[in-house]
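Q: Can I borrow your eye for a moment on a structure tokenisation matter? Would you mind producing a protein record, from residues through to fold? Write it directly below this note and I will take it from there.
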Amino acid sequence: VVGISSDMGRSKSLNVERPTAPKRRMKKVRIGAQVSSESHKRRKVVRNAHKTTSLSRRISRKSASKLQEAQEKDLSPNSKTSKERVPIVPVVPRMKGGSRRLRRDSVLGQLVETGVLTKKQAFSALSRHPRAAEYMPGRKRKDGPTAVETLAAFGMDRRRIARIIVSFPAVLSYHVDSRMRSLVSCLQSVGLSETQIAQLVCKYPPILGLNVANNVQSKLDFFAELGVPRERIGNSMLRSPHVLGLSIAANYKSKVEYFSDLGMSKADLVRLLSNSAYVLGLNLNDCIRAKVEYFCSLGIPRDSVATVIARQGSVLGLAIPQLQARVSFLRCILKGDGLSQEGTNVLSKLPPNANSADDCEENSKLARLLQTSPQLLAFSVERNMRPKLSFYLNEAKVCSPESAGKLLLSYPTLFNYSLSARLLPRLAYLKKLGLEHRVSMNSLCFKTDAQFASREAGVELADY
């Protein structure tokens, strides 16, 4: 025992170095400990933040209820509290709907309460413009009528007013009364009445957010400088009011320069802007240039493409597959098989650059037809051209499939007449009188109602 204790004492007195772990290993252990401690701190901070948030919510709810109880007690007739009281903000009820809440004392909430908007329309306006929930009555505008009152004064019913608010909720924060007066005086200078101006506002509500002097008037002056008559400017704006929100530099001037470089005359440009001003809002490369190149591939000369666009500007708004289907159907009519299902196939199934004499002749006829009657490209195949062609071939029997192409080249307005309002009633009336032998293209299409009744049916117009 003595020996052992002496050895132990000797070992204590000696400075013996114990083996340590490698330096790299110790570094790893220290870094890992540091990372774990930092992540633990972050988790702790997040937990504390959640606790603080939930606690503050509970406190705010309790304080709000206590404040409301104190206010009710303070306003009671038996209350003995005197002197000045601290103003207490009342708890405002909210209307629930989806994931949002709508304050009943807000402008949108009051419109729902009064029946101008439905709750669905109000939340649709909020999804489009979330700041509309902050609009309170009397804060943005102290004097003058409200936006709803101003719009109603121009003859708009609740349905139109609701549509304006849903599509453009920011109108609730504007001085609509003064803006509307300036807009009316500006648009009346181009020949629009108050009723037409109300229609324009319903079609394009963001016009109420435009500066009349810097935006609206400058666009009207641009049209006037190009030579468009004032009264035609008003009708053009009524058809396409969204062009008033476009940029003059980015949209107006670039399109006008392109059409001028294409060879469009000033008269054709005036016609295009008068009838189809919305082309100013189309993409120059994806829409306009692509359609021009497609028309050139059909054999139409480039200078004639400008005339086609000026006469029927709506073709620029169609997709290439739609144009291909209609061109393919017209090509089949010229070939004599217009009622076949191949007439609706796209042009890619037909050889665009055929080398045979017959194909070259068909391409030439098609190009000539589109130059003289570009409105054919605006007609739907299934809703317009195919039913009317079937009527001419099968019911009226005024032409055969082989002669339909020649008839279309001679009278390209065959598809302009209404099937339900003109063609079918006239055919039924002649058959009723036993005058089937008088059924012809002339009697069915080209004569007025008075001429048809007196010359073909032999009756008075009132009897017809």
